[in-house]
Amino acid sequence: MSSEFDLIVIGAGPGGYIAAIRAAQLGLNVACIDAWRNAQGGPAPGGTCTNIGCIPSKALLQSSEHFEQAGHDFAAHGIGVSGLSIDVPVMQQRKAQVVKQNNEGILYLFKKNKVTFFHGTAALKGGNADAGWQVAVTGKDAEQVLSAKQIIVATGSVPRSLPGLDFDEQRVLSNDGALSIDAVPKTLGVIGAGVIGLEMGSVWRRLGAQVTLLEAMPDFLAAADAQIAKEALKQFTKQGLAIHLGAKITATKVLKNGVTVEWTNAKGEAQTLKVERLIVSVGRKPNTDSLGAQTIGLQLDERGFIQVDADCRTNLPGIWAVGDVVRGPMLAHKAEEEGVAVAERIAGQKPHVDFNTVPWVIYTAPEIAWVGQTEQQLKVAGRAYKAGSFPFMANGRARALGDTTGFVKMLADAQTDEILGVHIIGPMASELIAEAAVAMEFKAASEDIARICHAHPTLSESLKEAALGVAGRTLNF
């Protein structure tokens, strides 16, 4: 097998494997290196997203949502369910199968596109852009050294732990352990009420756990539009999630049968939380510790992120970085777009990635999704805007589904009517947001959406109605 390539991609997560495939499509001889292993020790490309993130979490969310619907919603449809139970090992087996299918799909795509895959840990060893950069791969066999004039680093991120509270994945859980719980705990604590905390908390709450979330920030979902966040907090609290904002952790103790967390609330009052298991979801950090950046002089910032320019170029010619290891949101789809763009730049093209139209999604129930600016951001910027909204309770399809929680909100420039942001909380928000992202990418006005014919009855009509609302002329509310 050759050890010389046009491009080496380090990491086969969403940014890495997509970059490798796109570069191969453009005629480059590409190698991709990835260290993830499945239970049998074989390759498991797909990174955190496929193995312990996006994909398995959605599998468990789907299973737990079915369970909750069977126990609470089916009766309204005339469907009787008796003896309802949950078999967690079977649910976990299904999750594992979904992950396996995605792993195998990526390996198939590598073969289809003639990307050479190396299973092992990669480290930058030396070289230069003229003679080629050297990358050592350590796997089951002896170390081998590959070389290429172009390198893309896409090593992703790892969960951040709390000082003095390491992950043991039994009592103190990262997202990996949170996805692998083998029985429903009676009590579950979650430190951090962000995307991971809310999604994992929702899974186990639906299955019967008493879930408490401790969030350090004084505001709930501060990155989301304030009106959306307010509705989300109301709905999650109504479901039974105990969410405490402004919580400061003062001490933790891991016991044989659980974890004790000492904390103070927003008023400064001392509190104690005792739970069987504790999920820590206080953010993620770039996975660059074992990359060998110092060996070749690759610049990192004080937090371990690889420093890049707007086009993902590092300080070293021929070396690029994408995804969670660089600035910007830690989102799989952001990594994918950067990966494609870098592959095309290496091939001589001039692509563009607009971070303003990168959508955000939280896959809870109700789902939450947004793209563009929030109302509070527009106010801080001093930009004049108009707002329109439409509740799902007035949408015929939502009524038929029996899921009328939430609303669609659209923000547009007061003078030009250009759409500046769209925010959704409600059924299938993750799918509905795509129309908004397309509209914003093409600099559409709210009137453009308002005048497009949407099929009836569909949830997407709510987006049209919100657009009509910008002009104060909703038709169904």
TrEMBL record:
One of its GO terms (cellular component) is cytoplasm. Its main location: cytoplasm. The gene is odhL. It is found in: Cytoplasm. It comes from Thiomonas arsenitoxydans (strain DSM 22701 / CIP 110005 / 3As). Residues 5-339 form the FAD/NAD(P)-binding domain. Belongs to the class-I pyridine nucleotide-disulfide oxidoreductase family. Coiled coil: none annotated. FAD binds at K58, T155, G156, S157, D324, M330, L331, A332, H333. Pfam families: Pyr_redox_2 (PF07992), Pyr_redox_dim (PF02852). The lineage of its organism: Bacteria, Pseudomonadati, Pseudomonadota, Betaproteobacteria, Burkholderiales. The active site is at H456. SUPFAM superfamilies: FAD/NAD(P)-binding domain, FAD/NAD-linked reductases, dimerisation (C-terminal) domain. This is Dihydrolipoyl dehydrogenase. Keywords: Cytoplasm, FAD, Flavoprotein, NAD, Nucleotide-binding, Oxidoreductase, Redox-active center. GO terms for molecular function: dihydrolipoyl dehydrogenase (NADH) activity; flavin adenine dinucleotide binding. NAD(+) binds at G192, A193, G194, V195, I196, G197, L198, E199, E215, G283. It catalyses: N(6)-[(R)-dihydrolipoyl]-L-lysyl-[protein] + NAD(+) = N(6)-[(R)-lipoyl]-L-lysyl-[protein] + NADH + H(+). Disulfide bonds join C49-C54. Its cofactor is FAD. Residues 358-467 form the Pyridine nucleotide-disulphide oxidoreductase dimerisation domain.
